[in-house]
Every structure is written in structure tokens, then in C-alpha cells.
Specification:
342 residues, two-stranded antiparallel sheet, ABC_transp_permease, 13 helices
């Protein structure tokens, strides 16, 4: 009996804290074997790269909560990047107009995704995959597949006179001074604020609990009076808006509309959201786990880069870690459930 109880306690600890131990072990490993990994400069770079990935991953988390999935976030972010650059450089609009256009675009894309899934009964993976390809093509049409930069040549032979607003660049490049000369980039502050809001919304509000109820049992949630369609559409709109915010921050950091800069955003964000299932044994989508998953992905990629690992190996390692984390989480959770039932 005593041995059984000890095994049960060990299993519970493994489920709850296994990922945290893995995260700490990964950081410790790279600190020893990747020269410069433990430096403040490396930490700032990790957090800055994590910020954009994490914001997109939080949007994916909202769709996972209601039992859906959004594959269009990467293309929405890239479209936001191109739209903000185009509106300032070519259309010569202000930073406020550029940001507003991107947020509206993200909300509209999310609304269309939601309507396709809820009203037209298109499976979420197919609807968002179709939207992804549509946006990839659409964002290239105004510039004929070229990136957007100050002084670029336009199709009519003229030169674009617009520039990136200093207020817009501030969003991606400014750093707040902290104690001991430590610097905190604005995107990190925005990411932490959004993560806190999503965490509070999903975990401590009636609407968040209803979204979890929809994801667990949509029919039961509908029978008790929940407007399932409205909540699912809202989840995809949140995802679209957060993806557009990620694109805005990326454009503000780069200072140009680079058509290829968002290629890895989808894979990294999805990995962060799914790895979040393993954090603290949640076994379900959650904001805290997604934030920790984004940090994990950031540490992994930064460490591999600093160890001069070939770029073509990074996606393989990332995928292997993702599969291992999910197998670890759900296999141990199933054992825990089996023991409880026994």
C-alpha cells in the first residue's frame, strides 16, 4: 500500500513539474555548452523573439479552448506586417492609421474564419488553411511579391516617398530601463500584458469558463443556454487580432515589410500552444502554459543557433521535443486517470 502511494505521488509530481524541470535543464545545458547563452544580451534576444511567437500562440490557445484550431495566424501576422509597411511607405499614412488598419484586418479575418466554421460548417483546419493560402497570395499582390521599404520603386516607375513613423518603430525597438542596466523591450511588455489578460479572462471570468465548457462538450454547453456560435466566432476574432498585433511588432522591429520574415511564425506558435498542455499537468490549453511553451521554444532555438546547429535541424529538434512533450503529458495523464478509476 505504501509503495503504491509513493508511486502515485511520484506520478503526480512528474505530471505537474516534469516540464518545468525540463525547461530549467535545457537552459542549464545551453548555459554550459553554448558560449554566451547565459549573457544578458542573449536573454534579451530570447525574450524579444518569444514575445511575437507568444502573442500568436495565445491566439491559437483561445481557439483550442473552444475545440477549434487556427492555421491562419502566421499568414495574418505577415499580412499585418505588409499592410502596416505599405500604408506608411506607399500610402504615407500615420502610425495610428497603420496600426488601426492591421487590427481591423485581423478582426475581419477572424470573423470570416468563425463564420466559415460556425455557419458554413467548414472544418476548422480546412477553413483556416484556405484562409492561410488566400492571405499568402493577397499580401503579395500590391507589391508584386516584393518587400516594402523606404525608397522602393513602385510599379508605375515612381519612388515611394513615405517612411516608417518613429512612433511606430518605437513599438518594436524601444527598451525600458530596469535596475542594474537591464533593458526590457516593448514587445516583451506587450506580450506579458496580453498573457495576463488572456490568463485572467480564461481562468477567472464567466465567459472564459463557458469557452472551456464549449471545448469540453459543445452540445452540453448549448443545452444550458450558452451561445456556442458567438463564443466560437469570438475566439477566432481574438486569434486574428492577436496575430495582427504580432505582425505589427515584427514590422516595427524590422523597419520594413519583409515578405519572408514570418515564415516560421505558424510552426513556432503552434508548438508553443501545444507544449503548453504539458505545463503543470494542465493537459488542456491555457495561457500560462502557452507563455511557458513560447519561452521553451525561444530557449531551444536560441541555444541551437548559438551552438551553430544547422538551420535545417532546428525544425526537426523542435518537432521531436513537441511530440515528446505531448506524449509525456497525455500518456502520464491517462495512467493517472486509469489509477483513479481502479
Amino acid at each position: 500500500m505504501k509503495t503504491t502511494q509513493m508511486n502515485k505521488n511520484s506520478l503526480e509530481y512528474a505530471i505537474r513539474y516534469g516540464f518545468i524541470v525540463l525547461l530549467a535543464g535545457l537552459a542549464l545545458f545551453f548555459s554550459f555548452y553554448a558560449n554566451g547563452f547565459a549573457s544578458p544580451r542573449s536573454a534579451v534576444f530570447i525574450f524579444q523573439s518569444v514575445a511575437i511567437t507568444g502573442i500568436l500562440a495565445l491566439g491559437v490557445t483561445c481557439t483550442l479552448v473552444v475545440g477549434g484550431f487556427d492555421l491562419s495566424i502566421g499568414s495574418v501576422a505577415t499580412s499585418s506586417l505588409m499592410l502596416s509597411a505599405y500604408s506608411m511607405v506607399v500610402l504615407e499614412q500615420s502610425a495610428f492609421v497603420a496600426v488601426a488598419l492591421c487590427l481591423v484586418m485581423g478582426a475581419v479575418v477572424g470573423l470570416i474564419n468563425g463564420l466559415l466554421i460556425v455557419k458554413m460548417k467548414v472544418p476548422d483546419l480546412l477553413a483556416t488553411l484556405g484562409m492561410m493560402f488566400l492571405l499568402i497570395g493577397l499580401q503579395r499582390i500590391p507589391t508584386q511579391g516584393n518587400s516594402v521599404a523606404t525608397g522602393m520603386s513602385l510599379s508605375d516607375g515612381s519612388v515611394a516617398d513615405g517612411v516608417f513613423s518613429e512612433a511606430f518603430l518605437w513599438l518594436g525597438r524601444h527598451r525600458f530601463d530596469l535596475f542594474l542596466d537591464r533593458l526590457l523591450p516593448v514587445p516583451v511588455v506587450i506580450f506579458l500584458a496580453i498573457a495576463l489578460i488572456i490568463w485572467l479572462f480564461l481562468g477567472f471570468t464567466r465567459h472564459g469558463r463557458l469557452m472551456y465548457a464549449i471545448g469540453s462538450n459543445e452540445r452540453a454547453a448549448s443545452l444550458v443556454g450558452t451561445n456556442v456560435q458567438r463564443y466560437k466566432i469570438a475566439a477566432y476574432m481574438i486569434s486574428g487580432v492577436l496575430a495582427s498585433i504580432g505582425g505589427i511588432l515584427l514590422a516595427a522591429r524590422l523597419g520594413r515589410g519583409d515578405i519572408a520574415s514570418g515564415n516560421n511564425l505558424l510552426l513556432d506558435s503552434v508548438a508553443a500552444a501545444l507544449i503548453g498542455f504539458a505545463v503543470l499537468g494542465a493537459a488542456r490549453p491555457n495561457a500560462f502554459g502557452t507563455a511557458a511553451g513560447a519561452l521553451f521554444v525561444g530557449i531551444l532555438l536560441q541555444g541551437l543557433t548559438m551552438m551553430n546547429a544547422p538551420y535545417y535541424m532546428q525544425d526537426f529538434v523542435k518537432g521531436a521535443v513537441l511530440v515528446a512533450a505531448l506524449v509525456f503529458t497525455f500518456y502520464l495523464s491517462s495512467r493517472r486517470g486509469g489509477r483513479r478509476n481502479a
